[in-house]
């Protein structure tokens, strides 16, 4: 029977820890300004549409893992670094009230979605 | 369907979901994809989880600055100190929750609140099963864009100079909020403190209060066939 | 992202003169609105609702456990599960079925898609379970 090797690989380590060391050096660091790329939407992603084209700041470099677009078809060949990026609400939603200029949203991206702002 | 003999029919009425659930489970076991024992063991685990360990983590962090540092740096490691091993029950965790807990610390100027706009990612091992409202498309649609309105509906209104920081939990990290310790709790024990840290406080839609040990009362949609903890349910032929 | 605002209007009306439109009727914004993965609802306008709790059905917990056991034993990984139950179902089932109803359908589907059972076996099993319940509580 065909079983994914994933369960075996992560046993005793956890997931995403089982991919540690597989992505090479991280391209971005905490505090850097980044822009979310507007790649085509087709079949699957976990990069929300509301973040596309927006600029934010890297808040946390989280871990290495295959990107969802690959792992959703059980391909774990090319892990990437993941980043939590923080956005000002105003930079996401033009109609966000000016009364709350500090309000923010943060969410996580695999490296392919980020470019230097 | 008009039924002529209705002795005590509703109790045994089964839904399409119940039939399909039994069919899928039984087939998976018959085909050896997993064993009945796997299912039983994971069911026990599913019944064992709840928000208490997370509440204890918060209370410990309030009392012990060293522990707080650990919790903010490595949530999974800190969880061990409140009895939660994120690798349970499979050896690599609960597959759908992964094993990377991040603790978000509120400050006088920052208030965190968690959503998963894409599904309803939630730190089950330490916080239990997510509430139904957290899973609704409505909460997921609105919280990222209208957080102050949504929080107000939960009874939480915050000053304009407090940054409301929405955490959209969308990948493998799982998040819980470490709220600020409320006034009026001086000298309290860890247990006392944990008793006021409710589930909603750790999602971020409520704040702990010394007089409140339970989340706001909300309507509860009842189950037709609620969970049987003794596994004696008559659908469970596969067990 | 203009197409975010279009997504809420995507449910096809019941009566349209032509359901599959001519290709030139689909501009970029409409194409993206259709291609948008159905789980990506963040920022869609919606009205306030009453926040409620819910008691879980036995089948819901069983479904959750079945899905986790399938991952535990390497039949799928959690990302595959998320794709199948939150996107592959399509918008109508995504929005129209209960949360664990979608988990359940994706579990049924993976058994067939990965050829662990044939669709015939699944259909026969559903029928068998249904009859078993009928026997227990004859109508």
Overview in brief:
Chain A has 117 residues and is mainly β. In chain A, 11% of the residues lie in helices and 31% in strands.
Keywords:
heterotrimer; A: 117 residues; SH3 type barrels; five-stranded antiparallel sheet; 11% helix; B: 239 residues; alpha/beta; two-stranded parallel sheet; 38% helix; globular; disordered N terminus
The helix/strand order of chain C is HHEHHHHH
Tell me roughly what share of residues is in helical segments of chain B. Answer: 25-40%
Q: What percentage of amino acids of chain C are in beta strands?
A: under 5%
Biggest β-sheet strands, sense, barrel of chain B: 2 strands, parallel
**SSE series of chain B:** HHHHHHEEHHHHEEHHE
Mean pLDDT across the residues of chain C is: 90
Number of strands of chain B: 5
CATH class categorisation of the largest domain in chain C: Mainly Alpha
CATH topology of the largest domain in chain B: Nitrile Hydratase, Chain A
Q: How many β-strand stretches of chain C?
A: 1
Distance between the termini of chain C: 54 Å
Considering DSSP H and I runs of 4 or more, what fraction of the residues of chain C is helical? Answer: 55-70%
Q: Given the structure, what is the number of helices of chain B?
A: 12
Order of the strands making up the biggest sheet of chain B: 1-4
Oligomer class: heterotrimer
Number of helices in the DSSP assignment of chain C: 7
CATH topology of the largest domain in chain C: Cyclin A, domain 1
| Distance from first to last alpha carbon of chain B | 32 Å
Q: What count of domains describes the coordinates of chain B? A: 2
If you had to describe this structure to a student in words, what would you say it looks like?
- The complex is a heterotrimer of chains A (117), B (239) and C (139).
- Helices cover 11% and strands 31% of the residues of chain A.
- Chain A is mainly beta and 117 residues long.
- Chain A has a single domain, classed as SH3 type barrels, CATH 2.30.30.50.
- Chain A is elongated, with a radius of gyration of 16 Å.
- Chain B has two domains: 18-46, no CATH class; 51-203, Nitrile Hydratase, Chain A (Alpha-Beta Complex).
- Chain C is mainly alpha-helical and 139 residues long.
- Chain C has two domains: 2-35, no CATH class; 58-136, Nitrile hydratase, beta subunit (Cyclin A, domain 1, Orthogonal Bundle), CATH 1.10.472.
